[in-house]
Design goal:
With about 300 residues, the chain is of the alpha/beta class. It has two domains: about 90 residues, 2-Layer Sandwich (Alpha-Beta Plaits); about 170 residues, Vaccinia Virus protein VP39 (Rossmann fold, 3-Layer(aba) Sandwich). Helices cover about 35% and strands about 30% of the residues. The chain has ten helices and 14 strands. The strands form three sheets. It has a seven-stranded mixed beta sheet, with helices on both faces. A hairpin with a 2-residue loop joins strand 2 and strand 3.
Length: about 300
């Protein structure tokens, strides 16, 4: 899943706010361009992206860079038709404004995600997330859907193992721990995400989660459940690694798939020997659940070995 950096404005000062309308296909590239330009925080809401910069920035330079970036998108085969406006936000206590916008969120039937300054709700499984600068705060449909899928899988998988690929804040790994999985490994290539996940694991006192920085190959062993909330192209790229890390008859949950892209993701996993068990929709997002046949696993392992040579 794409990473959108959360707002971290702790001082009573002025900030530039950019409001950008961007096509989904170009959102990741534009997100990282804004980060490269020094954005203090990004907030995604549907097709609207809000970016914040210190008031000391050269606004003409920022606008020129964004306008020029359309050519980069076009040359990369991405949609360059994004539009933006900007304004100077008046001085205020941004930390308090930001905190007021972070509210408890329910996922599934029994899970509630809260920020560190909120009290846990009695009778529910509470996941405390200090969002920091990593994806996975519970506000996005795919995060909530993945937590609901973990909740549904738990009765048949209590005490079993789970691998969370692209863990972000660690929210899915923490949820799996609190819902009954016994051994969990969370992996991410982004050091910011790894640090955020470790801090959230500490906040939640979930001691059975091992967080690793790097690609999937740094993880050893196989798992009963693998979950990955990533963009479609990445989900397809990691098929061999998913197969090689999945136990016989294991379950794979894939999310972060835009409606219309689910067939190409499903085809990649069907060819690797998976059976599609369930498909669910939440607005424009699709979540797929697969089970791997033993004969399919062997074929997939051979494909993975060939790919990795």
């Amino acid at each position: 899943m794409r990473k959108v950096f959360s707002l971290l404005l702790y001082f009573i000062v002025e900030y530039y706010e950019f409001i950008i309308t961007v096509p989904d296909v170009s959102l990741d590239a534009l997100t990282y361009k804004l980060k490269e330009l020094g954005s203090l925080g990004l907030y995604e809401n549907g097709e609207t992206l809000r970016a914040y910069f210190e008031h000391t920035n050269n606004i003409e330079f920022l606008c020129d860079e964004l306008n020029s970036f359309r050519r980069v998108l076009e040359s990369s085969g991405l949609d360059p038709s994004f539009f933006f406006t900007h304004t100077m936000l008046p001085a205020r206590d941004w930390n308090e404004v930001w905190k007021k916008g972070i509210i408890p969120i329910n996922a599934g039937n029994a899970v509630t995600i809260i920020p560190p300054w909120e009290r846990a709700e009695e009778g529910r499984i509470t996941i405390m997330i200090d969002s920091g600068m990593a994806f996975g705060k519970g506000h996005h449909e795919t995060t909530r859907t993945c937590l609901a899928r973990i909740e549904k899988l738990t009765p048949a998988h209590a005490g079993k193992s789970l691998l969370d690929i692209g863990t972000g804040t660690g929210i899915l790994a923490i949820g799996a721990s609190k819902m009954g999985f016994s051994h969990i490994v969370a992996v991410d290539t982004d050091p910011i995400a790894v640090n955020a996940a470790r801090e959230n694991i500490r906040l939640n006192r979930t001691i059975n989660i091992d967080v690793k920085e790097g690609v999937i190959s740094v993880v050893e062993g196989t798992f009963d459940v693998i979950i990955a909330n990533l963009i479609s192209s990445t989900l397809i790229e990691i098929v061999p690694e998913v197969v090689s890390h999945l136990s016989a008859d294991g379950i794979v949950v894939l999310s972060g798939i835009l409606a219309g892209e689910e067939d190409m993701v499903a085809d990649a996993y069907l060819k690797a020997g998976f059976d599609l068990k369930e498909k669910s929709f939440d607005n424009k997002w699709v979540t797929l659940e697969f089970v791997c046949r033993q004969e399919g696993k062997l074929a997939g392992l051979q494909a993975g070995q060939t790919t990795n040579r």
